[in-house]
Amino acid sequence: MYNYLDRCPGIYCGRSLLENGSWSSCGVCPRGSRVNASFACMPCRDELSTYSWLYLGFMTMLPLMMHCFFIDMDAKDRKFSRKQLILTASAFVEVALAAILATLFMEPLWELRLFACEVRKLTDWYTLFYNPNPNYETAYHCTQEAVYPLQTIVLVYYFLCLLNMFIIRPVISSMLDVRGKAPMYSALYFLPLLTLIHGTCCGLIYYSFPYLSIAMSMVANAIHYSLKLDQTQKALLLSSVWDVKNVVIISVHWLLLAFGISSLNYHYALLCLVPFPSLFYILTVRFTDPGEFREIESRI
């Protein structure tokens, strides 16, 4: 059917089928479609791959983790307070509702599944830089979402997160008499920042998010333990087992690490190493705590 189509310049320019049965001139493909090997624009009807779902899961987790971080910073309590639990639950509802709505708004409409165009290479995320200019005469503007819907769905999701926060958070705060202005103000900064990062680095994040998950988990784990006043092995171990807040925070770090390892699709036996960063810190804290070195220096 497409064998007679003339070649289009560039790698993202194609021809669209018109209502009269003829083909358009070379140009940008309509949203939700992508050029095939015969330079015809074909609708995106592939099922989203597991790796792409995991990527969307990672992008979904980022606002929730940021919400929880700033809520915890504002609480300044060693244990979970009523205010912190309510605001965290509200943040979870906001991002969960935003994720569901963002999925429903994409093709196929009002279904919890997604039609997609397969991601083939890094340049698919940056079609803006691949508009052809044959013989430096006529420029073809073929910028499109070649990885539909992985770019727009995240932008829609971040917008819905912000909208839900403005609607849900004040209602819950007034109904349950909880005040939490600082976390909301923080969201007004980090949500636009996440949007900017996604708009510029989405392709790089797509290929590196498993490693980012692992790095974020290990760094957060080390920072969490380093903030403890008592840096002895016994105190760190007991707080990791009996302190409910510590158990929850460490569990989140472990889940993030497990998520990153699972996304790599190497050997799932590596999941056995999930507790290793915590155990490594506890077992080696005596060699890294500055207090230990000061005691040794005083004895000399």
UniProtKB/TrEMBL annotation:
GO biological process: ERAD pathway; response to unfolded protein
InterPro entries on file: JAMP
Key words, A-Z: Membrane, Transmembrane, Transmembrane helix
Annotated GO CC locations: membrane
GO molecular function, one term: ubiquitin protein ligase binding
Pfam families from the UniProt entry: JAMP (PF05571)
Transmembrane segments: 52-73, 85-106, 146-167, 188-209, 244-261, 268-287
Protein name, per record: GH14120
Organism per entry: Drosophila grimshawi
